[in-house]
Amino acid sequence: MEKSLSCPWLQHYPASVPQEITLAPDETLITCLEENFRKYKDLPMLENMDKILTYGEVDTLTQRFAACLQTYTGLQPGDNVVVQLPNLLQNPIAMLGTLRAGMHVINISPLYTAHELEQQLNDANVRGLICLANFADIPASIIKKTPSVHTVIITEVGDLLGGFKGAITNFVAKYIKGLVPLYQFPEADLRHFTFKEVLSLGKDSVFEPVKPSQEDIAFIQYTGGTTGVSKGVVLKHKHMLTNIKQMLTFMKTRLEEGKEIFITPIPLYHIFGLTVNLLSAIQIGAKSVLITNPRNIKGMIKELKKHPFTCITGVNTLFNALLSDPQFASIDFSHVKISLAGGVALQDVIAERWETLTDNPLIEGYGLTEASPCIASNIPNGTHRRGTIGIPLPSTQVKIVDDNNQPVPPGEPGQLLAKGPQVMDNYWNNEEETAKTFVDGWLQTGDIASISPDGFIKILDRKKEMINVSGFNVYPNEIENVILTNPKVLEAAAVATWEEDGREVVKLYAVKKDPSLTEKELIKYTENWLTNYKRPKYVEFRETLPKSNIGKILRRVLQEEEKQRLQARKQGAKI
Length: 575
Known about the structure:
The chain has 575 residues and is of the alpha/beta class. The protein has a domain at 467-574: ANL, C-terminal domain (GMP Synthetase, Chain A, domain 3). 31% of the residues lie in helices and 23% in strands. It is built from 16 helices and 26 strands. Strand 12 (311-314), helix 11 (316-324) and strand 13 (338-341) form a beta-alpha-beta unit. Helix 1 crosses helix 2 (55-72).
């Protein structure tokens, strides 16, 4: 760390937590994966829909997956491959198998619209695509517009559940529940495989182990970043592996190797779920229980009752929903060691209710995709401080600066900047945005924060105009650009508003060009352009929108109105 910087948080490090993290010269995600597959080969690694895969079985399946990619698909080491899957067993098999074949993984939500998917496939020059049949109509509809894609692999929900159970699961999903839409990929110039075919072909193929360097790309994770434009964050082996080790120094103050059960409701395509619930769990031989649909709260509670889980992660809205269900109190929490919230600000009232009910503190961490993602966290050994995101991880520097990038005194607000070996080097093919994101080598988070004299960080405000829906970043520019393609709209501005339960959602202010336009019609219009969580929940029509003297629409004025409405509701509730 820079000697000139004050690091008061180090006084809170337990003796087991080093100040610095170092990697061995030849250490990569691949070497660690293979070591852990051998070390924990007989232990359970993954569970989903009551099907368990051991570390040894995952080793075999990922080798087969990689062997097929190398032999039959035409994909080459260094190619970009999209994994577009929910939390099913197939997700980590595809993801880790792709890495073992020497290719770069791009994780994308299966809920993306055709417009969103097309943009990212073309931006990253993607060669291969792995998706679920339930959502395959979307990539099929745009595949001719993404000429770089030459290999598609389709999986069905039950493909790894085995025997009769897998077959009946796929039959019910397709023919009883109607969850698999009709789709057709063009045959010409496209290699098409089912997931089962890939594993079968890989079984009879020779797997050629790859040996990437720490400087090689492992993942490209798309995000709005700190400026709101969708960009691919290039995360190399060194970034990901360092962040895993950094987080584990804190987590291992409570966790033991080979003895833990992680509950994984956060999607593995999200950087939080990927790094914490999958890759970090693998490093300590833990089992990760994959929750496919965390919105089904009753189903998730039923799943929680099956497992003596020791670690659970989630976002504020999920913890709130669990606490609001009467059945949640009947769960056995006696084994829980770590309850970790991230992705979005944790509300104090939720943390209080959680600790009262479970007798385990709900602690908060902080990060962003550009940092693999974790920068700071509370330590789960009793030194946590509610209302804060904790203290910086080992080898991580932070500072709070004013608008002139000058450090501010402890307790004073300013922008949070960070530096560390987990921070990305660049965005994919985007030097301009990379330059905007760093100042003198420091990552600008865009978040307003303060730091206490002894090193605990408090986030005071979110990125100025970002909207955070259930832990996912939503950017006004993207929404407004879609809305303004509607010929009935003259002007638009998207801001955050809040539901009665505190959930943040999107609100759209608009000026009509055509008086016949309705709120329902405008929301419906976004369905073909935006993923569900990005769509406006509310629309308010105005005659004019506030503007600066050069004509720029002032979203901050509208946002302040929403905050005042929220405050008025709170005061009304107290009365």
